[in-house]
Write a structure and sequence with these properties.
About 40% of the residues lie in helices and about 30% in strands. With about 150 residues, the protein is an alpha+beta fold.
């Protein structure tokens, strides 16, 4: 029987506008800070697979229950907004990046499925249909910028 995994992807909403309309120097620092904060906010044994621009591709084979997943998203969301809100009063300067950090939001994609790996040189990563599915979920037409999208167990 194939091992199962919970695939988990927090994705920053408003990233493209933020990058295209603000100064790169502070923008890089701010996005890196927010992504590090999300990584450090893992409470359900999430392993980081990749940093994909404004998203983190993570997974765990220790399958949490619904309440644990909801708690995970809540912790990340609270930490994220606490950090972005801090730029209202503690920003380094008045550049576009520092001024518009509070406009960033966070969405979550959560998918349960089979776990397979591919090894290329010394890199070992999840591989297969389930990885494709969670990435396709990013391309949706949900009209709001902050949400949790769950798939159903198959």
């Amino acid at each position: 029987m194939m091992e199962k995994a919970l695939y988990f992807m927090p994705d920053i909403s408003g990233f493209t506008k933020f990058v295209n309309n603000t100064e790169i120097e502070h923008g890089i620092h701010i996005i890196a800070e927010l992504l590090e904060l999300l990584i450090d906010s893992s409470i359900i044994n999430l392993e980081l697979v990749e940093i994909e621009g404004d998203a983190l591709f993570m997974f765990t084979s220790k399958i949490p229950n619904y309440e644990q997943v909801l708690e995970q998203t809540t912790v990340m969301l609270k930490n994220f907004h606490k950090q972005t809100k801090s730029y209202e009063t503690k920003r380094i300067c008045n550049c576009g990046s520092c001024r518009t950090t509070t406009n960033l939001e966070l969405k979550f994609l959560v998918h349960y499925g089979n776990l397979a790996f591919i090894k290329v040189k010394h890199f070992v990563k999840p591989y297969g249909r389930e990885v494709i599915k969670i990435h396709r979920l990013l391309k949706n037409e949900i009209p709001i910028n902050e949400y949790i999208l769950f798939t159903l167990r198959s």
